[in-house]
């Protein structure tokens, strides 16, 4: 096929063919490498942002927006006793798990006292400060959607907003503009139908004041999460789902997210649990908290153990995971809610010819949980 260039920097598309997705390889970083990096960060000076952080970068990642997957940035960080990060806000949303030590995480108007494996989300444009108020180094792993924003050239970030500026700005906006907003939308009216296909017209006043759900920082304390892991750990090979809980943020609604871009799940799999092979366009990053196992990703076998982090499911790569004799506890981050928002979350539970469904836009899959439970209780 010959490609012709048309006038005005336009490309002739008549010779196109259907395109398949180029898939990054899986990529694993050993826990020992992460420990070494945290030691180096502890021994050196703080960054200008008050943070000691290392970004985990996939070999295929390119600027702008480096990440472990094309849209997910992963950082490991450490704060020494008494250190605090500079107050920062940006329009990326993030999820963080404490790994060791203790600290206070201040996000917007909330303050969480956290220790190992406690998790929190930081919504976009909420000021975050982390203070190590303990006697040991505080370490953490944090995930954000900043790579995607950087690729879109819309990543916004600022430091040291004036004390109370965020709250003051919010209240000022509320008092100054709320009556104008109400009267403007009232004057404009609502959506009106066009034709009989369901198409409608919407006034501009709604575009600059869309309906919203307040997005708040939430805390998932590990002690409470751990109480619920036994029930999923009891599921055995043959269960067609995954033995996990999603750390659910109700503000994300049907996106089933922890943030509006990511879900975070805690898998607790018993010994020698083998999950079914499947694939999805959401990218998955597994951080192994306990135990060991292996994954087959795009035909490649990867052995993993506690402390390792891996791009375990590059978007649309077939993959499956299995534990060894000691089972495993795994934190998984996936950009699943982002894809639901884009109507792009295609998913295939059975890679041997099963249907490809667009989750969040049509009815999805089921599991054999009811059958498995009946067998357990019979
Ligand atoms: Fe998966």
Give a brief rundown of this model:
The protein folds into two domains: 27-159, Sandwich (Jelly Rolls); 219-355, Jelly Rolls (Sandwich).
Describe the structure.
The protein is α+β, with helices and mostly antiparallel strands. It has 2 domains: 27-159, Jelly Rolls (Sandwich); 219-355, Jelly Rolls. 19% of the residues lie in helices and 33% in strands. It has helices at residues 31-43, 146-151, 165-188, 204-207, 222-226, 229-233, 336-342, 369-377; strands at 5-6, 10-11, 27-29, 52-56, 73-79, 88-90, 94-100, 102-107, 110-115, 119-122, 128-131, 138-144, 157-159, 192-193, 200-201, 219-220, 244-246, 263-269, 279-280, 284-297, 300-305, 309-313, 319-334, 346-348, 357-358. The strands form 7 sheets. Strands 3, 17, 18, 20, 21, 22 and 23 form a 7-stranded antiparallel sheet that branches. It has a 6-stranded antiparallel sheet with strand order 4-5-12-7-10-16. The mean pLDDT is 93. Bound molecules: fe (ii) ion. Fe (ii) ion is lined by residues 278, 280, 284, 313, 319.
List keywords for this structure.
378 residues; alpha+beta; Jelly Rolls; 2 domains; seven-stranded antiparallel sheet; 8 helices; 25 strands; globular; binds fe (ii) ion
Topology:
Blueprint lengths: L4 E2 L3 E2 L15 E3 L1 H13 L8 E5 L16 E7 L8 E3 L3 E7 L1 E6 L2 E6 L3 E4 L5 E4 L6 E7 L1 H6 L5 E3 L5 H24 L3 E2 L6 E2 L2 H4 L11 E2 L1 H5 L2 H5 L10 E3 L16 E7 L9 E2 L3 E14 L2 E6 L3 E5 L5 E16 L1 H7 L3 E3 L8 E2 L10 H9 L1
Antiparallel strand pairs: 1-2, 3-22, 4-5, 5-12, 6-13, 7-10, 7-12, 8-9, 8-11, 10-16, 14-15, 17-18, 18-23, 19-24, 20-21, 20-22, 20-23, 24-25
The chain binds fe (ii) ion (FE2).
């Amino acid at each position: 096929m010959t490609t012709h260039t048309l006038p005005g920097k336009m490309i002739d598309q008549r010779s196109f063919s259907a395109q398949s997705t180029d898939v990054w390889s899986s990529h694993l970083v050993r826990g020992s490498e992460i420990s070494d990096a945290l030691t180096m960060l502890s021994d050196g000076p703080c960054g200008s942002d008050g943070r000691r952080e290392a970004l985990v970068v996939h070999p295929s990642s390119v600027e702008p927006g480096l990440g472990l997957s094309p849209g997910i940035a992963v950082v490991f960080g450490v704060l020494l006793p008494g250190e605090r990060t500079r107050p920062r806000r940006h329009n990326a949303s993030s999820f963080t798990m404490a790994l060791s030590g203790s600290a206070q995480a201040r996000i917007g108007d909330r303050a969480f006292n956290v220790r190992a494996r406690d998790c929190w989300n930081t919504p976009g444009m909420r000021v975050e400060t982390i203070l190590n108020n303990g006697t040991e180094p505080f370490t953490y792993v944090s995930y954000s959607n900043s790579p995607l924003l950087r690729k879109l050239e819309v990543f916004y970030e600022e430091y040291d907003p004036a004390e109370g500026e965020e709250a003051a700005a919010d209240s000022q906006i509320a008092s100054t503009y709320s009556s104008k907003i109400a009267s403007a939308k009232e004057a404009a009216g609502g959506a009106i139908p066009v034709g009989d296909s369901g198409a409608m017209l919407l006034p501009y006043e709604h575009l600059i004041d869309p309906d919203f759900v307040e997005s708040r920082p939430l805390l998932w304390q590990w002690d409470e999460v751990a109480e619920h892991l036994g029930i999923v750990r009891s599921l055995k090979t043959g269960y067609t789902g995954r033995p996990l809980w999603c750390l659910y943020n109700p503000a994300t609604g049907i996106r089933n997210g922890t943030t509006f871009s990511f879900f975070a799940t805690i898998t607790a799999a018993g010994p020698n649990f083998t999950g079914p092979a499947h694939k999805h366009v959401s990218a998955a990053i597994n951080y192994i908290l306990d135990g060991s196992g292996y994954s087959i990703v795009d035909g490649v076998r990867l052995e993993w153990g506690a402390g390792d982090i891996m791009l375990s499911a590059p978007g649309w790569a077939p993959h499956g995971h299995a534990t060894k004799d000691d089972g495993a506890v795994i934190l998984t981050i996936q950009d699943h809610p982002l894809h639901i928002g884009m109507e792009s979350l295609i998913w295939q539970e059975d890679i041997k010819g099963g249907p490809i469904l667009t989750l969040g836009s049509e009815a999805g899959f089921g599991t054999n949980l009811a059958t498995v439970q009946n067998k357990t209780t019979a």
